[in-house]
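Subject: mismatched residue count in predicted assembly?

I count 1515 residues in my input, but I want to confirm that the predicted structure covers every chain. Input:
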Amino acid sequence: MRKLTFLFACLFMIGVGLVNAQSLTVKGKVISDEDGQPVIGASVLVKGTTTGTITGTDGSFSITVPVGNRTLVVSYIGMKSVEVPAENGMVVRLQPQTLEIDEVVVTAIGIKRSEKALGYSASAVSSQDITMTGNRSALNALQGKVAGVEITSASGAPGSSTRVIMRGYSSLGGSNQPLYVVDGVPISNGQIGSTSINGGLDFGNRANDINPEDIESMTILKGGSATALYGSRAASGVILITTKKGEGLKNKPKVEVSSTSTFDSPLRLPYFQNEFGQGWYDRGGGEQDLMENGSWGPRFDGKIRPWGFVVDNQQQIKPYVALPTNIKDFFDIGTNYNNTVSVSNGDADKSYYISYGNVTADGIMPTDADYYNRNTVSMRGSAKFLKIFNISGSLNYVRKDMRFTETGQDQAALDGLWQSPRDISIVDLKDYNNKFNNVDNYYTIYAQNPYYILNEHGNKFQENRIFGNISLDAQITPSLSATFRLGDDVANSTLKTWRAITNSARADYNDEVGRVGENAYYSSELNTDFFLNFNPKLNNDFAISVIVGHNFNQRDAQSQGSEVIGLDIPKFYNLSNSSATPSIYGTLSQRRLIGVYGNLDVSFKDMLFLNITGRNDWSSTLPANNRSFFYPSISGSFLFSELIQNKDVLSYGKLRASFARTGKDADPYLIYPVLLQTSITDGYRSLDFPLAGPVNGFTISNVIGNDQLQPEISQDFEIGTNLKLFKNLLDIDFTWYNKKITALIWTATLPSSTGYTSQTQNLGEITNKGVELSLSVTPIRRKNIEWEIFANYSKNNNLLKSLISGLDEIVLGGTGGFPFVARPGYELGLFKGNVPETDPQGRIVVNAQGLPVFKAEQEIIGSSQNKYRLGGGTSLKIKNFRVHAAFDYRNGGKMYSRTAEIAYFTGNAQPTTYNDRQPFIIPNSVQLVGGQYIENTTPIAGFTNNLNLYYNQTYKAGIGDAYALIDKTFFKLRELSISYSFPKSVLKNAFINSVDLSLVGNNLFLWTPDSNLYTDPELTTFGNDLAADYGEFGATPSTRSLGFNIKLSF
Amino acid sequence: MKRLKFYNIAAFIGLLFLSSCSESFFDINHDPNNPSEATPGLVLPSALANSAYVMGGYYHALGSFWTQQYAQAPAASQWADWESYNLTNVDFDRQFTLLYAGGLNDYEYVRKNTAETGNWKFYAIATLMQAYTFQVLADLYDQIPFREALKGNVIPHYDNGQLVYDSLLARIDYAMSKDFTGSTVENPGSSDLIFGGNIDDWKAFANTLKLKMYLRYVNVNPNTYRTEIEALLAENKFLTKDAKFTAFKEEQTGYNPFYNTFVDRLSGNVVANKTFIDLLKDKNDPRMAKIFNPSVTGSLYNGIAAGDNKNHPTETSKNYATPAIKGTSPVYFFSKEEVLFLIAEAQARYGTASDAESTYKTAIRASLTSLGLAADAIDIDATYPYNGIRSIIEQKWIAQANKNGIEAFFDYNRTGYPNFFTRSLTSVLNGDERPKRLYFPSREVNSNPYTPARVDLTEPVWWAK
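Triage response: the counts match. Full output below for your records.
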């Protein structure tokens, strides 16, 4: 074979020699079609030869062409190449590349395919889209930019998680997060944290560890056909990340520096009432009560009054007035510094890219109790050798150091803050050693000084992570290549938590015996792929491509931890500092998956494309009989615009359709029954084995094994079209999809009378039907001015179609008295709460005290799912200035807000001032007297007894649990940047190639409906998946950040 | 040449494929973190601790609130709904689940494994303690899953309380009829956290439990178990010591459950009830200072009436006496004095009044000595003269303080004594109505279609008055 090639080469050279004998010289000029300006340095080549030249400063060229071959190929970076017949005095007009239709998209297992050949929707996002505002998270930077993808950041705490859901929820118990694939190798998206309402922690998801500056492009694959080759891991979509390489730099080293500094403030704080001050309802007549943390006291009168406890016969005084900004004043300006420097270079045979990035952020909470530091080092290189081989590899190191302020209700700084009376100046409590502010005399006995919590309790998280891959490609013949890829992602993390010994002379509530915990986590994900790619040349009309491959994946996790409760030496945090038996745990987990796959691409005349795939997986997590599962996909596209000659109106038109089945395995260790070391808890405290004696004990696990478990199967049908109109001024992409997931795996609740509380079962069916529409309009495109507007619309109808018989509801999460459930016939994620009893006419039934009566059974009172989402933005380029904005709008859905609930409880909520807190009759209410509903005339008593009960957890503002639900609708200005690029003329003789300065802002503006007085609806403290849609239990407020960015290139 | 290459590659893939199918390669799905089986000696302690945790924690607390020994303190409201009887089916749901999916299922595991191997001592202990636990649940809910319960994938029907009782009594007799001397019988030793494996103590426990259960029938038909009661009295082999769980330690994950949650964690909530402490004061009963700690402010033995906490806005728990249960206080399944009061009641109903009176006095003296007081610290005839069933139950109520609140509640439901409880000031029930049971727990309501329709709290259970 090699001989033959050599022979061809010889013949070729001879040919060149021959035609050279008869030649003529042609002169011409190359100009830009856009503005008529000469193109300097364009390449002019005689087609099929190595003969060529480049254009001069006026765009002119002169070239000798053989008589028999008069076709010239003219090309220039950023312009479309053209082939033209050589003629003396010719003028070649080059079109800008932006008009290039044939975009190349990276698809499954890293195969680059022409966009037009794809039978499914694949959204590509460029580096610029991700790094525009210097966001530390590439995922957050995508918010609102891609149709069909819901991206939510958990809170404003630095380094917090980002949740990505594509085309709705497709799994109940498993992950709904996409698979993240970096340069062809899956990486971990693990998350370390806690969703406990008595101390929630969030140390971020690992997909957020990637430095956005290292990313060249991202491709978002949503449907089953797009992801089928990735196997069961990809059932919730795939995000392909292609990193920057040194390729194509032609041996000119490139150094890039990006530096962003932004400053954060809370985006949304609750709107509290400012009419009533400190007090509690049971103190009679709305009298002030100086040890309360609530605002059920008297109306503000401006008089000077004492406050707090009498200490050493002294008491503080202050005017009794509302302090409308007492909460806001508590928060600091958060800082984010995000810096990256990279060096890269390459030539035809080898390349390298090395970068170092650092993010240092201190959030809006006072002190550095909310802190995020991320160091990333990325190294990649590639080299060709022995003619047919190419080896490439990458190594990424991530070091994270974090501190997170606990969320929830126990020792959480914010929980006390939200309950602060409207007249207490919180910043004045900062000196928590001051005798009036210390743990003994802090003004309320029901909460702890937030400054004390931030300074004295805490946690420290560290993670060292290395991920990378090695890929070896061999071009065995021109039409056959083989690739072997090996990737690993190893993370080691430690978490230390502590609480100070706290003994209050007055307040038992705040007492804490002191505790320290140490935890270590390890995770590894090993992945190999081997595949062959065969691209035989058939004829001009047909092209086929065949891939067969093998995949192996093994995921290991290990964690262990200890905690001691009851410390001896104050402020000394080590496991040795306790006489108590430490509580300890250690867990291991391992799973393996092997897949074999095949892929066939057929195209006809570059107009009709067909793709067929098949994959079989074997998973260790399923019972032996159900371990192997096969799934196929088929997709096609039809480039109907090829049939139309005149491209003035329709320059590009494509129809696509696809069908796929994909399977998904279960989590490990669900098949066999086990016993556990016993720990018995009433929810407040526990009795843990070993007991005094010592005596050890084991209890049968409350989860009963299931040896009949099967994989979840999803069937995915998708059709769509992509149209480019009016010379690409208008680009429309539309997709309709219908996805059905059967044999849903879920830990079903069993009545505990069975002896168990749950079993993992295949128990239902979900469908997701939806549409995605993306539009991009470029009303102006000239040399010095370009204006683009883009928008996308997504609507997903999620439906839990059925559950196995006997089951009419499953509990997805939430809190004990107010569960988050799913019911057949409805979308996932419903709120089930108490509702007032009503008479047949819908009037509220009240009791003898005039207070509402609740129904015995809870009812569905809302859904967490958005009705639709709208994203978009605009970009305006005028000369060297560029303005970019992106927004995100989500409509519909509800969420639970602890902040709202606590605002009612404490009388801080605005609705609690209804009727000046005077006795009132619940409007449109009735009493049941002798079996008859008669109009209610009993008012709810004022301050003295029941008014607070009416607003607190007992009577829930008369409307039941809905009082703590808020509308999730919002509009956010996600990004705004104004940048200036120094003109090339200014930099001409400097060693700098480019300088870009930007003013950048993230989440500058939030609009919510008037009914939402409490929180940013994006917040959650319930993890990073389906249960997160429940809402927030004291989440750190989201932030508005504003700053500047400098990008330099050398 | 090309074909050869393809063949090689196909073979390579085939090899990888074969490795995929090797069973040992995939057989890694047995949980390495938890055992798949355990000996009865490791499961029994867990089950016993589970029963002790619920009986000595929430159930004891509830019984003590509803028999007006404890009360909700001012400036706090954790248990205010118990005092106002404003319960929902979420209340005590966790305890139901703890017992069924914990202790009861673990006893069942021991019973099943030991029945197969003839390991009858373990079998007897597990059967007796499972019966005790089922009996309490039946008394709280009237109908409970029983015959079909604890069977994994079977969703169980509910059985009525009397059927549960009859079945439990038969189970006890069967378990105690076994030969405890065979070679297959292991000595439970230290894994028996109640009696250290002494089967004679468990025989006495069985007789005591049976007597307690027989006496539940007195309102239904006093003759149902007359013969059996008379035989038990004649045999007189009841417990002569406490059946108590003591394996607690002085740390947060090892405390007595009542102390841990009600005293330490949710401090400032539980104080002495005025009804109870005023009686002790009135009778100058020396047990008062043993049952309660004096108030922090003023060292007084003050109690607050049920539902009165809202009317004392300037006070906290520190103004009141609090239950003197400590971190390592035992949980009592039967106290020695409780057994004596049971015998006294049986004698009063089925034997002679003089025997009853004598046992009654022995019981009071046992109560005194159990608290470290002299047996004659009270002049019984002067202070608490014998007066039949009424005096027996009233004295049992006093003796059960801090020891077995839920049994005091059952006694009250069964006999109506003591009859001097005050109406809770926050009661949501009509007039002097009081709860006599709990609602079927929410988890059952939500996941077991056979759960009976909700029954009012005031509806008596099958044996109650």
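The helical segments of chain A are 2-20, 127-131, 224-227, 413-418, 450-456, 898-905, 947-951, 984-987. Marking this ticket as 'not a bug'.
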